[in-house]
Protein: DUF4352 domain-containing protein
Organism: Murinocardiopsis flavida
Amino acid sequence: MARRSFLSTAGTVAMSLVLVALLITAHSYFITPEQETAPIAHTGARGDVVDAGRFTMKVGKVRLAESVAEESFGGPELQKAKGVWVVVEAAVEPTLSPMQAGTPTLTNGDDFEFLAGTQLTTTIDQSSVPFEPGIPRRGFLVFEIPTKRLTPPLTLRMHMTDNGLDDRLAAEAQIDLGLDAGDIEALRAKAAPKVTISEPGYA
């Protein structure tokens, strides 16, 4: 009787484990509403022209800075980092219609995600002038990151939309900044005391 009870219990446990495994597998196939309408990513590397479908993007020089500033009527307004500023130069060009940039993010090797700094009004993502098709514009993106979070690889993500607000199924560029641990250490050693962020100009 005890043996039958043991076998029955073991069978129940085994069946439960199978059901749990099936539920986990089935869950992995479900797509959430957010996933259904998430920006459509196109990947590339720094220095390449990344074609994101509705716009192209090319990332150039990457610098680190202790402070960033924008030109204003009263002179440069300084923003000191609680950590370090990652300053990225980029060129953007819509291919079909006028577009505005969404909020860019920078993801590190530990999957921490940092939003672009919104304190400045002269960065690409804060430009009030829509980007026009066939007219590439060059400017800056800045990210404030704790120094200990500068772990490779660093990946820049930026999407663009028709109105800058609705990002459902937006075109998105995902660009590997191509920096290893040695590159990051070298950038830290020569971090600028200040970098002035000018408004996007024509490339």
Observations:
- The radius of gyration is 23 Å.
- Helices lie at 2-29, 33-36, 181-189.
